[in-house]
């Protein structure tokens, strides 16, 4: 998210997020910008999922589930209530996927022509572990990225933003479709995996 928060708030016609803490590259578990309840907010990216040790049966640190598949958001208990009651817009400048051989993968970025920022469909909820958290809704990937990944974010046209956030669940689900417009593809030599102790590859 390389667009300043004030410009994002103006684009989405919502109140800005005073003191919102987020970085230009958003990593799972770290804060990203979300438009929810009529305001621009910083939330943690990823829903917590209980993690139990197979050896001891003890609870471990929860795992982060940062993406929700559209074909599961109405029936999976992790997503269903949030999809019915708490849909949000996720402003992004671009998103990245890993391309190449395992452990040698590099970042390939995708964005929209003539858009400094655009909206991706998301859902959110309050969590004990990380406060308010959001997850991105994913659909089948388009032809332009078929050689890299079989899924992509739910990109929403400007005229569909209100339907996603305020429509019925059925109306919102109708927007969970593969993007048919052109994409800008930026293949880089930047490694997807970082050395131990550094942050992993980003998605936004």
Features:
204 residues; mainly beta; hypothetical protein yedk fold; eight-stranded mixed beta sheet; three-stranded antiparallel beta sheet; 4 helices; globular
Question: Can you give a write-up of this model?
Answer:
- There is one protein chain.
- A hairpin with a 6-residue loop joins β7 and β8.
- This protein is 12% helix and 39% strand.
- Strands 1, 2, 5, 6, 9, 10, 11 and 12 form an eight-stranded mixed beta sheet that branches.
- The protein is mainly β and 204 residues long.
- The radius of gyration is 17 Å and the shape is globular.
- The chain has a single domain, classed as hypothetical protein yedk fold.
- It has four helices and 13 strands.
Brief account:
The protein is mainly beta and 204 residues long.
Give average pLDDT, whole number: 89
Main CATH class:
Alpha Beta
Please trace the helix and strand order, writing H or E for each element.
Answer: HEEEEEHEEEEEEEHHE
CATH homologous superfamily designation: SOS response associated peptidase-like
Which runs of at least 5 residues are low in confidence (pLDDT < 50)?
Answer: none
Count of DSSP H/I helices: 4
Quote the beta fraction: 35-45%
Class based on secondary structure composition and strand pairing = mainly beta
The percent of residues in helical segments reads 10-25%
- Could you say which overall geometry the principal axes of the C-alpha atoms support? globular
What would the CATH topology be?
hypothetical protein yedk fold
Radius of gyration computed on alpha carbons: 17 Å
- Annotated CATH architecture: Alpha-Beta Complex
**Overall strand count:** 13
Largest sheet: 8 strands, mixed
């Amino acid at each position: 998210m390389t667009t300043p928060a004030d410009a994002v708030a103006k684009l989405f016609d919502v109140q800005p997020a005073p003191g919102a803490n987020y970085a230009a590259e958003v990593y799972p578990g770290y804060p990203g910008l979300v438009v929810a309840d009529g305001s621009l907010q910083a939330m943690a990216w990823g829903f917590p999922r209980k993690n139990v040790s197979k050896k001891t049966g003890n609870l471990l640190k929860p795992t982060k589930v940062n993406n929700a598949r559209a074909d599961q958001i109405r029936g999976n208990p992790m997503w269903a209530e949030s999809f019915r009651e708490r849909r949000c817009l996720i402003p992004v400048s671009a998103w990245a996927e890993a391309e190449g051989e395992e452990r040698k993968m590099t970042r390939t970025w995708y964005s929209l022509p003539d858009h400094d920022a655009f909206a991706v469909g998301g859902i959110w909820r309050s969590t004990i572990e990380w406060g308010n958290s959001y997850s991105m809704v994913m659909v089948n990937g388009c032809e332009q990225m078929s050689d890299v990944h079989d899924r992509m974010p739910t990109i929403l046209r400007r005229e569909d933003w209100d339907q996603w956030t305020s429509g019925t669940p059925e109306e919102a689900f109708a927007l969970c479709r593969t993007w048919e417009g052109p994409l800008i593809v930026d293949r880089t030599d930047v490694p997807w995996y970082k050395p131990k102790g550094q942050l992993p590859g980003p998605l936004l």
